[in-house]
Amino acid sequence: LLVFGLVLCPVILMAQRREDILSIQRDVAQLQDQVKQLQRSQDDQIAALKTLVQQSVEASGKVSAGLTTLQQNITRELADQQGKLVAPVATLGTKVDQVSEDFRSVRENVSGLASRLGALDAKLADISSAVRTLAAPPPPPPAPATTSTPAVPGPPPGVSAESLYQNAFRDYSSGKDDLAMDEFTQYLKYFSQTENGPAAQYYIGAIYDRAKQYSDAVDAFDAVLERFPENPKTPDALYMKGVDLMKDGRRADASTEFKAFLKRYPNHDLAAKVQAQLRTMGPAAAPARPPAARKKN
Hints:
The protein is built from eight helices and no strands. By secondary structure, the protein is mainly alpha-helical. The chain has helices at residues 2-135, 161-173, 177-191, 197-210, 214-227, 234-247, 251-264, 271-281. 77% of the residues lie in helices and 0% in strands. The radius of gyration is 55 Å and the shape is rod-shaped.
């Protein structure tokens, strides 16, 4: 039995070892199958991923092509619109320039016409003065007693309305107020009915204002408003009257004049200054003083 057992034992061990080897081989085969399945699954996923990437690349290419086409279309449309608009805008700009040039020419012509009319008015006044001088009868012999009122003398020989006004304005502009005052006064004496009569009266007020004789300046500016009809110096005279009333301490009267200015000339260039003067004066105003006696210039 012992011999039999010794002989049989290696056989059993060999059989057991063979069975173990076969089991290991089965496990290895099963593992290889799993690896193959995993490899196939990974290959399938990679193939699907490649397909998705390819589709994405193709879609991106299509979008890029579409954007390029859209940009080209927009650029072409903008170029077409620009080409269509440039010519009309350039034509409109040319027409606007032409209109501006025409308006400038008209304004210059009107200014020249006004100057010529002023000169003609002055010459007519000179002619009228000369005619009155020539037509005047010789003076009668002096009588011992007479109550007749002497006639208003004409301008001195060689003095014309145009030259007298230009000299007066030149002296006023250069600060020769005394000389300008005398010349403006002579102009009003001989040529008050001409076109420059209101301006001469206005500059007399301006000379008083520069001399800080505010009461006299108020009277001179008021004379522009009373002695002459509406003229280019009327708004300036009304404004300066209010200013000199305020400088003279007559704030209530100044406020009245400023309010009258805004009511009469609400859109004038001086309206903003008038409103500023009213704001400076405040709501309260000093009681009005009776105006001083007017001086004759």
